[in-house]
Amino acid sequence: MATAPSATLVAVSRALARSSIALASSKLYFCIPGLLAGIGVGLKLTNAPFALAMCFSFLFLRKKFLFKSYLAFLFAISVVLGILLSGGFWYLKLWNFY
Length: 98
Known about the structure:
Elements: H1 6-19, H2 28-43, H3 48-57, H4 65-97
Helix pairs in contact: 1-2, 2-3, 2-4, 3-4
């Protein structure tokens, strides 16, 4: 049975696998999984721990610390964009109502 973050986990694992092939020029491989994780979090908040764990997983790459933190930052920004795309309107509506 597939869970909601399974597509994002596959995308993150492919991005991490490609990171060892000198993927410094193509940041898109790290933004798309974040966007998918953010959409998952926006649709159902129980996916938030998965997105947070995926963001921390970038810190365990065998690269320099600044590069790892930069990839984690890109991933986190794309997660926030995904949350805003999928659930931002509803979150704002609830914020104004209550």
